[in-house]
Amino acid sequence: MSTQDHALPQRQSPLGISVLIVGGGIAGLMAALELWRQGLDVQVIERSPARLTAGDGFTISHTAMRAFNKWPYLKQKNKEITWTAWIAWHNFKGERLTEPENMEFKATKDSDKEIYEETDGLSPELHRHSRPKFHLMLETQLEQVGIKVQYGHRAVRYFENPEKCTAGVELDNGKVLEADLVVAADGIGSHSTNITMGHEVRARSTGISIYRTAYSAEIVNSDPEIVEKFEMAPNGSPVIQLWIGEGLLATFSRNEFDMGWSITHKIAKGSSESWSKAVSVEDVFESIPEMNDWPDYARRVIELTPKDKLLDFELVWRDPQPIWTSSSGLIVQIGDAAHTFLPSSGNGANQGLEDAISLAKCLRIAGKKGSIPDATKVHNKLRLTVEKYGHNDKGVLNYTPRPKYLRMLMAPWTWKHDPEKYAEERYHEALCALKDGTPFQSTNTPPGHVFKPWTFESVIKAMQDGEDAGFDGEWEG
Ligand SMILES: Cc1cc2nc3c(=O)[nH]c(=O)nc-3n(C[C@H](O)[C@H](O)[C@H](O)COP(=O)(O)OP(=O)(O)OC[C@H]3O[C@@H](n4cnc5c(N)ncnc54)[C@H](O)[C@@H]3O)c2cc1C
To answer: For residues 362 and 383, is the Cβ–Cβ distance under 8 A?
Structure first.
């Protein structure tokens, strides 16, 4: 079946609202699709001259994939490109510390099974995706609804004009673009924080960085030892091997399409928070001399990495941004522009997708131009309280197996969440809370968790003092 044969989803009646999306990454493309479906008129600008094909992989949860059921092409393509992962812990001799374990969601009640079924054929397991393939899938779907990303458009300044009920951006060539609503989906370091928070958000290095790549599995498939050592699980699923030792965490994963590896290490000369700045394999061996003692097959996986495919992505903390909208509500941030997640938390893409779904639904419920500020501010309120999850990556270089941390990724409160349904059910309550100050208790959190504003300083200090750092509640619940 060709991609052209797929039916498009039912589009809601037009609302006559124009939206300018800045950034054609994961959150921006999903926002374009969902806003189109909810009856808004969308254009997307992107600073890169052409589609970016860099990156390796990320985890996408059912909370976001559930939305693909409304999109016949996304639903089919997603099934083709996704893979489910088992996990095994190893030491740096390559010896197994724990047997491969299937990463299944915890089901607490019978009704959980119905939720799996709703997700239509996707097993209740951890799903991984190649970022380039996932991005291409979203962009292909967008082209099918007739929207083309406008490449080579770099926004340098956001502005709003409440009297005229418009907002816009200025591009680096001086051109100005305006719309009824501007969605800042321009990722880490977005210029939009100047207008939402009133200042740039300070970045602070964790002192840790990740060498990371994924390249064609064909490159290693002719090496029998690599194939044997990075074998599949009994049911044919790929196994992600987590190798741990003092000061380092490495991952290896071979699947049908790709060989991926990463090493989390102390920052080195080539480390930077960039998805495009490649480093060389020689840099890896130079900065981690311990690798001389690793088994030859593991070293070969690293040596076989194609030139220009290897990144050394520095992990950087930014304090949470409690406000994602401009004061008039005509500019709203989504994805990394609103909340930067450490890429080691396995959650950034997912949260960007959920933001897109939630924002589109809120605008649909608001239903008219004059209510855009209500919609963006309610969206902010509904989504903000999940934020701590992505930053809850306390022991990046913790030297022991951390099954508890992985189980948190599979907790019922995370995978059961449906951002569209949540917006539908709680929009009016959240709006009342905004207008009248009535209490609003989020249920999009670990059971028993009460969200309190926090900063990295406060969390680090609390942990140093041996106090509860505010991670109260049942994170595995
Ligand atoms: C090329 C690339 C590869 C990545 N690979 C991985 C990966 O392998 N694993 C992983 O976990 N995460 C990866 N990420 C990050 C991940 O996609 C995001 O953390 C997450 O999906 C949230 O998506 P986002 O749309 O908010 O941000 P992003 O996906 O980063 O998208 C932001 C987009 O905005 C564009 N942009 C930035 N500034 C401007 C501007 N001024 N004007 C116009 N456009 C602008 C960027 O070029 C980018 O396309 C990658 C990001 C990029 C850009």
So the answer is: no
pLDDT of residue 445: 81
Q: Does residue 99 contact residue 159 with C-beta atoms inside 8 Å?
A: no
Per-residue pLDDT tens for 376-416?
A: 999 999 998 654 444 434 444 444 556 666 667 778 788 88
Atom of ligand 1 nearest to the CA of 336: 26
Say if domain 18-83+126-202+321-433 classifies as CATH 3.20.20.30: no
For the CA of 341, the closest atom of ligand 1 is: 19
The single-letter code of the amino acid at 354 is E
Q: Does residue 354 contact residue 419 with C-beta atoms inside 8 Å?
A: yes
| Residue 435 CB coordination number (10 Å) | 10
Residue pair 21/28 in contact by the 8 Å Cβ criterion: yes
Is the C-beta atom of 186 inside 6 A of ligand 1? yes
The model's confidence at residue 452, banded by pLDDT at 50, 70 and 90, is confident
Atom of ligand 1 nearest to the CA of 156: 41
Ligand 1 pocket member 243 (CB < 6 A):
no
Where helices occur in 385-473 by DSSP H, the ranges are 387-391, 403-409, 412-415, 419-436, 456-464
The backbone region for 29, taken as left when phi is positive above 0, alpha when psi lies in -120 to 50, beta otherwise, is: alpha
What pLDDT, on the 0 to 100 scale, is given for residue 413? 80
428: left (phi > 0), else alpha (psi -120 to 50), else beta? alpha
Q: Would the CA dihedral through 117, 122, 126, 131 be positive or negative?
A: negative
The tokens 């119905």 sit on which residue?
114
d(CA 40, CA 46): 19
Residue of 336, 350, 354 best suited for mutating to test ligand 1, as the one with most atoms within 8 Å of CB: 336
Q: Which residues pair with 59 in a beta bridge?
A: 128
Beta strand residue intervals within 267-335, DSSP E: 311-318, 331-333
What would the two tokens of residue 247 be?
């000061």
∠ Cα 170 174 177 (to 5°): 40
For the stretch 251-310, pLDDT in tens is 999 999 999 999 999 999 999 999 999 999 999 999 999 999 999 999 999 999 999 999
Q: Which is catalytic among the residues 37, 66, 128, 212?
A: 212
248 forms beta bridges with: 245
